[in-house]
Amino acid sequence: MRYIEPHGHMVSRTTDDYEAMIIAGCRAVCEPAFWAGYDRSGPEGFYDYFCQLTDYEPKRAAKFGLPHFTWLCINPKESEDTTLAAEVISLIPKFLDRPNVLGIGEIGLNKNTRNELKVLEQHIDLAARHDQLILVHTPHLEDKFKGTRLILDALLADSRIKPDRCIIDHVEEHTIQMVLDAGFWAGITLYPESKTTPARAVDMFEVYGGQRVWLNSACDWGRSDPLAVPKTAIEMRRRGHSEETIDKLVFQNPIRFLGQNPRFTVR
Ligand SMILES: [Zn+2]
Question: What GO molecular function terms would the record report (predicted)?
Fold first, then answer.
């Protein structure tokens, strides 16, 4: 088996995880900027984090032969403070030409507040001005349906944004349809307890197809499984899906989306 992990917060994972991913067939890992488990006290904390994502972590991954890519932003959970958000957004352009940066993400909404929406629009503008791909985090279950609608409307309201250059992550059964209907890519996140289990992910694949869909583990410092993507591939195999179908979903699809940025190459 070969697969891409398109959404893993590797700064929170151990070297054992890197090793296990390589053994399972991982060919590249992509790490969106996110909440660190605590609120950072100022823009300097983000500056250091962006250095970690673009310098230290790719070197750590390279020791295991794994290409590491990243996405940059201030995550929605910390964007309630619009002054801090503006300062962080102004730091991002100087990192955009680092060789492992794929785009702006994971932006989006957390509690669907007015300030979060304002910062989301600023990120969309940043992506449009620099012609960047976009990776979107959608809120947790209680706010997901409304939040996903608000995010899609914000993206569609900006005529510079092309939906097929944006992936809306953490879709579930009640949001995947609206994402695909509007022309965006949909990310299905596999978690042991929240978001989606491997079985539910395969159900969604069987109902909606895999034309513009990827799978990811979103592994971080919480309960999560860096091998969730290959485990879901095994669930597909168990249900009789062909090796070609599985390869398309877990390997070729992420390459189709991410390859829109020529920096993303996989051997
Ligand atoms: Zn994430």
Answer: hydrolase activity, acting on ester bonds; metal ion binding
